[in-house]
Amino acid sequence: MANDLGTTTYTTPSDTEVVMARTVAAPRTLVWDVWTNPQHVPHWLTGPDGWIMPVCEIDLHPGGLWRYVWRNPETGGELEVHGTYREVTPPHRLVTTESWGPEWPETVNVYEFAEDNGKTAITITAHYPTKTARDAAIATGMADGMAMSYNRLADYLKELR
Amino acid sequence: MATDPLSTTFAALADPTRRAILARLMEGPATVKELSEPFEMSGPAISKHLRVLERAGLITRGREAQWRPCLLDAGPLREVTEWAEPYRRFWDASYARLDNYLRELQAKDENHGE
Description:
The complex is a heterodimer of chains A (about 160) and B (about 110). With about 160 residues, chain A is of the alpha+beta class. Chain A has 3 helices and 8 strands. In chain A, strands 1-2-8-7-6-5-4-3 form an 8-stranded antiparallel beta sheet. With about 110 residues, chain B is mainly alpha-helical. Chain B has helices at about 5-15, 15-25, 30-35, 45-55, 75-85, 85-114, and strands at about 60, 70. Chain B has a two-stranded antiparallel sheet with strand order 1-2.
């Protein structure tokens, strides 16, 4: 799915999926590198201003684990997400599981990188176990659990623990 | 425990049975009996979940009719959906940062090549 630079499209092609597509102005090998190398990831995957990624662990092979921790130094809010790599096919395709803790359904995420004319289309497909789980995740802002700019989420997750 | 309205809403949504009840009510009003059918749960157990949903303002229940049908109240859910907006904001902000980061890396690469 081709996308204009600078815009992200969100779609729900089936009952249990959420798809997010974005095109960036860089060749696929570089995009793969910034996506999978822990020296690069904390430079950009930090969401809204104010958040940093102090922990970025990536063991990039099938069965390897990954773990990200975000922190908002101002509020003390912290979020952790982790999972396992299922498929690692540089620089095309990456399949991982993603878990935000026992209260949330684990998703299987497929990351696809397609190069065209020096640009790379990034497609992320999150698979939920059921439609209810997906809808609840969307409704609660946990489609990828990334509702971090609201400190309430961090508080809420603490409450659930 | 949850005190503000949004926390109450989230606490109510944190349970899979209650989310399934809400999903069912999105299709239209239903009685306790109808709601308890898909779950292997007793009427009183379902009623307990309904009370949590009612307290969170997510459902209302008919007062008049004897069977007291349950209705979805979309108000708090709408608030949650607005609250969910940061998910997009997270990715939009991250992707904007990625665009810049890729630009920087590629500029550095070109300089090295010269």
